[in-house]
Design brief:
This protein is an alpha+beta fold. The protein has five helices and three strands; from the N terminus they run E-H-H-E-E-H-H-H.
Length: 76
């Protein structure tokens, strides 16, 4: 779950905030009581998560055998 942090605190403690994000934390940056930004780890939103989702999906598909084939069969 995202932790709320003011824009001022985020600015003053940015390197600490980044270390927390690297450890998996995520933050909502607030300005004047409104959420204006989210700071999240790249892995949560990036290619790694998409690949994991794809891998889980592919494992749900039935396995099918193409039978025995040779290289020559591919070019016929």
């Amino acid at each position: 779950m995202d932790r709320a942090i003011t824009a001022t605190d985020a600015n003053q403690h940015f390197s600490e905030l980044l270390r927390d994000v690297q450890d998996g934390s995520s933050f909502v940056v607030m300005s004047r009581g409104r959420a204006v930004a989210r700071v999240i780890p790249v892995e949560k939103d990036g290619q790694r998560a998409q690949m994991e989702t794809l891998g889980r999906f592919l494992q749900t598909l039935p396995q099918r055998s193409a039978g025995h084939w040779t290289r020559e069969d591919l070019y016929r």
